[in-house]
Amino acid sequence: MRTSLCEVLGIEYPVLGFTPSEHVAAAISRAGGFGVLGCVRYNRAEDLDAALDWMDANTGGRPYGVDIVMPAAAPKEGTAVDLDALIPAAHREFVQRTLAELGVPEAAAGEPGGVLGWLHSVARSHVDVALGHPIRLIANALGPPPIDVIDRAHQHDVLVAALAGRAEHAVRHMLGGVDIVVSQGYEAGGHTGEIATMVLLPEIVDAVGGRVPVLAAGGIGSGRQAAAALALGAQGVWMGSCWLTSAEYTLGGPNSATQRALLAARSSDTVRSRIYTGKPARLLRTRWTEAWSAPGAPEPLPMPLQNLLVNEAHQRLAAADDPEVVAMPVGQIVGRMNQIRPVADLMADLVQEFDETVERMSKLR
Description:
Elements: H1 4-9, E1 15-19, H2 22-30, E2 34-38, H3 45-58, E3 64-68, H4 80-84, H5 89-101, H6 120-130, E4 137-140, H7 147-155, E5 159-164, H8 167-175, E6 180-184, E7 190-191, H9 197-208, E8 214-217, H10 223-231, E9 236-239, H11 257-264, E10 270-273, E11 281-284, H12 287-293, H13 305-319, H14 343-362
Parallel strand pairs: 1-2, 1-9, 2-3, 3-4, 4-5, 5-6, 6-8, 8-9
Antiparallel strand pairs: 7-11, 10-11
Helix pairs in contact: 2-3, 3-6, 5-13, 8-9, 10-14
């Protein structure tokens, strides 16, 4: 299980693993893949700096990267307080009423009020911090980052990756200076488009694969699926959801409500909605997501207003310790995520199944 991308990134297997946990990201790199730490949950630059310090000390010298959430054009966002004033009172009332109906406790005094990493200004601070560490890649979850960020990354010998949900997006990313395109199919968790992986991936490979490496994302959680991605022309795979039930994923504490919900879910238990960030994202289907689709529910606000509206609610939902109300991005691969296992075991099984699949296919007549 090796492609030319392995030489570019200095890794053993062309498996890039996105995760909000530095412990999981480091474990992916140590297992021969390439851990990518999601930065959006870090409100303060010093907290991200500390997490990357920890990764520097715990990746065994293996390469890793970071993932930011930054539109190519900076929105006119002002301060978080200014943005708060743009959120309609009716939306706030709906959120508070829904939390009460779901039996979600009030936030404890002194607890943080939510995640600000969706704001463009905070994302730029993430870039500043990350470039002070020996990262190998900056990935952007909202297409290509601003041109000046791409230029700064290249000046530090850091590659830039961007997610694409259409072939024309991939072409635009490539022309803008992006080094790696992640073809993200409809099945994926988090922000995702409307075209399934099996259709999207060869379209993007045909459009840009001769110029930049293409990674396959969406619905990939096994060696067979990774082999299919490479058969369709990908140089590697980008996997996120499957690490949420790894032993190293301890956000929310051991045996968290989120992990219990994921372990019990089937592949049909997700929904694509704008309620998480304001842009279409695939989430686990729970009583929280159902409340937003019920008659009388308001339309989600555009990004970043929807983030500011619900991010404190998401903190409270996570703290409620109730699997039926968690708010969690996850892909349709969740139906295969039915056991807590170490990252090293997940990687070993993926590689073994990949090799077995390739061997089986070589025997076909």
